[in-house]
Amino acid sequence: MRVGWMLICFFIDVLLFMPKIIRVTTAPISLNVLLPGQMKYMQANGFDVIMVSSDGPELSKVKEREGCRHHIIPMTRKMTPLADVKCLWLLYRFFKKEKPDIVHSHTPKAGLLAMLAAKFAGVKIRIHTVAGLRFVTSKGFGRSVLITMEKITGMAANHVWPNSFSLQNYILEHKLVKKEKLEVIGMGSSNGINLKRYSLTALQTDKLQAIKNLVHYEGNLIYFLCVGRIVHDKGIDELVQAFIRTYEKNMLVRLVLVGAFEDEVDPVREETKNYLSSHPGIIMAGWSDEVEYYMSFSFALIHPSYREGFPNVLLQAGAMLCPVICSAIDGNIDIVEHEKTGLLFEVRNQDDLFQKIEYALENKAHMQQYALELRKKIEQHFDQLIVHSLLQKKYSELLAFQRN
Length: 404
Known about the structure:
It is a single chain. The model is unreliable at about 10-15 (pLDDT under 50). With about 400 residues, the chain is of the alpha/beta class. It contains 17 helices and twelve strands. Helix 10 crosses helix 15 (about 350-360). About 50% of the residues lie in helices and about 15% in strands. Helix 7 (about 140-155) links the parallel strand 5 and strand 6. The protein has two domains: about 1-190 and about 385-404, Glycogen Phosphorylase B (Rossmann fold), CATH 3.40.50; about 200-380, Rossmann fold (3-Layer(aba) Sandwich). The strands form two sheets. Strands 3-2-1-4-5-6 form a six-stranded parallel β-sheet, with helices on both faces. Strands 9-8-7-10-11-12 form a six-stranded parallel β-sheet, sandwiched between helices.
């Protein structure tokens, strides 16, 4: 009995002294897609982790996978001033109740509200990860509002972690955050990539066949892949135009789009919509959580986005040995080096994209070599276990400094 009581006391002591981290994202889809496994890792390595987001269809999956507590705050991605003030108050009350050692936010709206609420609640360690800047592609009054939001977030946080070096340089250049608050963890990336999952040897034959059936796969065709939201800012308009020109020269090419439309936020042009629904070379596959299967049989991934932080899809493609053609923007250029680990083209330039597609078709051996080099780079710097351990080490350093 005495030994049992001693063990109970030991575990109580451990629990009492476990540092508490609250991870905040606007919606559960971000916990699910951007940060899978990270909260579980921290929970297993000495931290008491609480997740915070709005409600959503992904929530049950996230809670089951991560094994951590979750608290709902009804944040929205849009500008909703009255609702935002309410969420700020709810976050403040929650932080005062839980008394976390660290509040770490991700995504713009969550960053603004969580960093302000944490500051008001007296949380000593306030971290915000920047994984892209929405104002880069905005104009007018909306752009000014978004810039102001980023600056307020940066002032309320005492640590701001851009997830790429090029993004950090952009933040410094535009004076969004003080230099002493900025730090890139490791070589970048918010979460790294699970190389046990994203591997050709991990694919299940039946799933692969089902996806091939979905796209009516034929072995003699050449499949280009694009993964992500089907919106203007992802470069879909230029991609479709460049692909149509490619198809006119080679009717064996196909363009597979894995993603969903978001017409209410940033719609593609009507002309593009018409091509997406009617062009014989374009295949709309819909949203999928298993993009690695598409990458396994694709000739190349094309990622024509206008803005990024540190795009996971490039890591996923690289891990799957799928060659990459992407826009030369911040984030992308931290992963892909032109004609070494992939091909870069000028953002928004459909002519340059078309030329890079043509080059890829004419230099298949080069593309495969680029893919091999990208896989090596990912194994060295972006394995999820490496990224998670670096984050854990940084948390521990901040906690030790705070105690001293």
